[in-house]
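Quick log. Single chain, no ligands specified.
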Amino acid sequence: MKLLSLSWTHRDRVGASREALAAVPVERVLAELKARGFAEAVAVSTCNRFELYVAAQANQTLAAAPLLAALEDLAGAALAAPPDVREDDPAVGHLFCVAAGLDSLVVGETEILGQVKAGYEKAKAAGMTGKRLNVLFQRALFVGKKVRAETALASGSLSVPSVAVQLAETIFGRLEGKSALILGAGAMAELAAKHLAEKGVSRLTVANRTWDRAYQLAARYQGEAVEWESFPAELERADVVISSTGAPAAVLTRALVKDAVRRRGGRSLFMIDIAMPRDIEESVHEIDGVYLYRLEDLEAIVAKNMASRAEAVAAARRIVDAKSAEFIAWARSLSTGRELSLKHADRTDGRVFDAEYQA
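-> predicted structure:
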């Protein structure tokens, strides 16, 4: 088996590549690769990473250049930063680290496991997985669950939205009595609403292009929904704005924010952009009284959380290393005619994880 992975993550100093790829639906990536003759591929796209895993037969050539060319054609331009390219064993270990949450901006976050699963399921539905990628991704999901069940890596409040709310709390000292506006109604917006409600914000407003989703999200946290067209008026009242839409371009422009600031009577406006592609134009930070924080600004809080979790990280890495070695041995056995058994039934946290390997 040959395996190649291309990764753009939160560690890249230039985020433009990640932002360009985030605007391309995963389904389009898979369709384009299939059209170019790639038989097995899985793409994982989140606010913090874009990952592409491609598998081929042991006797086939597999190189990064044609994959990069396909992605650049889809993005409509050359990508500003090169990907991290991994082949075979390192690619396996990297995927297992990603699924375990060890490679996340917020180490131990729970969302990444669902995002890896969603990427795998889309590839499977597109007919872009064979035995190798099926086993690899099912194994990665198993490892991600095992790490969360057997270590303290995921203990506590860990997610990008939870860290964003921690940042807001750091800014204001406490959030009780403050007014918050959330743009978007997806999973990240839901977590932001949950953590803001737990911190006691006095007014929680949700705006989303689909009114029903905004209404349902706001109702779950005793908030108020507004029509998408009405959210600019809410900028006048909000103390903090957390934006997490799936829009392909910025929804909060400099002109819109500048107009809102004129009506705020000199009150500062704090905005946290956790979307990818970005929701808020970077230049709003130049407006007097406006403070914009982006994903990379969350790293100080993340580092503080990490300092107290070194033991859990070490335990998680031991699991990842052991399971990577098992998978690599299985993959190598495929070419020997004596395939090793990789079927597992680990009893973890009272449940049995039993991968259903499908050829």
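Residues 347-359 have pLDDT under 50 and may be disordered.
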